[in-house]
Amino acid sequence: MKKRSKRFKEISKNIEKNKKFDLQNIFEKLISNCTSKFDESIDVSLKINLKQSKGGDFNLRTTMKLPNGNGKKNIIAVLCEQDKVEDAKKSGADIFGSEDLLEKIASGKFNFSKLICTPPMMSKIGKHGKVLGPKGLMPNPKLGTVTTDIKKAVTDLKTGLIEIKNDKDGNVGASIGRKSFSREKLLENYNFFIDSLKKERPDNMKGEFIKKIYLTSTMGISYKVSARK
Predict the structure, then answer these.
(1) Of 20-24, 67-71, 95-99, which range is least confident?
(2) Is the full-model pTM beyond 0.85?
(3) For the chain, which domains are there?
(4) Which of 57, 140, 192, 194 has the fewest CB neighbours in a 10 Å radius?
């Protein structure tokens, strides 16, 4: 039989099955369950409708910049031409390079969580898609990671720009902050996230777009939120 920790047993007393909560008190419940020693993330998980009346299933892939960031520290790499490496360094990127960075990528020996690439380097990085793609690191112009404006791209990623996409079942998830955030900042991020997501709804979709919404923390309890139409 699996042994449960004392912490888990204690927060399990707060589980309220099949009950929806409004946002007036949900963040209080979330924070009160963040009893681990690290700064737990506050995460939103939801299910969207993928069925369109025409054109096949809907697929969501976009970016949004949370007003207060989400507290996640990304390690940002910039792949650029040799004469722009100094600009990449000044932009605030953690890792930067040209052919030398390509060699690290080819060997699989890299530790960045986001990769920005200038357009001229895309032809060289394409063959490394099998390494970068499964890790979600392949630069994409639609996501702002293929650009000539290196400084803006780095700043955006360091100040709250997040990528949003659904899986094959319509599940979408994102971190909207940390337990150290104020309730006001968490609420503002949550409302911005939901409002931005609603704008992605296709015109030819019938019925509800957002079906279910849950909020939880890294080591805490999941709470069902009353969905906003």
Answers:
(1) 20-24
(2) no
(3) 19-70+161-225 (3.30.190.20), 76-148 (3.40.50.790)
(4) 57
